[in-house]
């Protein structure tokens, strides 16, 4: 029995009216009637009693409808799982060991969910969350948290990215004052000012405008610009990272829209807290 023919039968059985069933199936009535008569001939049994009073299911029709609905019910969980997707925004830290552990844990917990990754550049610390492009963001703070809930997963010390031949590159550590007269990388003018201020050490700076990590590294390499990077992120051999002792750590966070009821978001945050050795947050935090 073709799936299309079975769909025709179910529509007539549920509507108990060939005209309404044809409208529901977006077809004309004559080919629908012919398809049902052909099905009855193939099965060797009448499926409907047709009379001036209307259409009614025969006993054979009742059995076939029950079988059809049971088969649909059996297939429903797989169809639902296949239709469910979950989009994660990331800020270029997809190689982070914590993110790798989280991916494994989430896949094991939700094997039927299609996970989509949207990697954002440095101009949007919410990774598309505020714009409604993702369900949850795995990113870094600080940024404007209006309408968002933010939970810290880890705090990373930060260092200055310098050329290897820079006079400051041989230092064991630096303070922000040591970099006061240097050019720093900048984000485009419409970037979140809280985010921009952090990566400029809390001061107004001048320097090359960049949008990505690679652009930042190239600005350091070509122009001697001061870059910033969490410690442990090893730059190319021509560059080095020197710890800055008086710059607050860069916080790895998970963020979602306040009041979000999607259970996949809550599960993601729970698993992220474990993967990054954190705990489940109170949404008011």
Any chance you could write out the topology, listing elements then pairs?
Layout: H1 3-15, H2 18-25, H3 29-43, E1 48-51, E2 54-57, H4 59-83, E3 85-90, H5 97-109, E4 114-119, E5 136-141, E6 148-156, E7 158-163, H6 193-199, H7 213-223, E8 227-230, E9 239-243, E10 250-257, H8 263-275
Parallel strand pairs: 3-4, 3-5
Antiparallel strand pairs: 1-2, 5-10, 6-10, 7-8, 7-9
Helix pairs in contact: 1-2, 1-4, 5-8
The secondary-structure class comes to alpha+beta
Give the termini separation.
57 Å
Count of DSSP E strands? 10
Shape: rod-shaped
- Provide the helix percentage: 25-40%
> What is the radius of gyration?
30 Å
Order of strands across the biggest sheet? 4-3-5-10-6
What does this structure look like?
The protein is α+β, with helices and mostly antiparallel strands. It contains eight helices and ten strands. It has helices at 3-15, 18-25, 29-43, 59-83, 97-109, 193-199, 213-223, 263-275, and strands at 48-51, 54-57, 85-90, 114-119, 136-141, 148-156, 158-163, 227-230, 239-243, 250-257. It has a five-stranded mixed β-sheet with strand order 4-3-5-10-6. Strands 8-7-9 form a three-stranded antiparallel β-sheet, with helices on one face. Strands 1-2 form a two-stranded antiparallel sheet.
Keywords:
three-stranded antiparallel beta sheet; alpha+beta; 285 residues
Question: What's a quick, concise take on this entry?
Answer:
37% of the residues lie in helices and 20% in strands. It is an alpha+beta fold. The strands form three sheets. Strands 4-3-5-10-6 form a five-stranded mixed beta sheet. A three-stranded antiparallel beta sheet has the order 8-7-9, covered by helices on one side. Strands 1-2 form a two-stranded antiparallel ribbon.
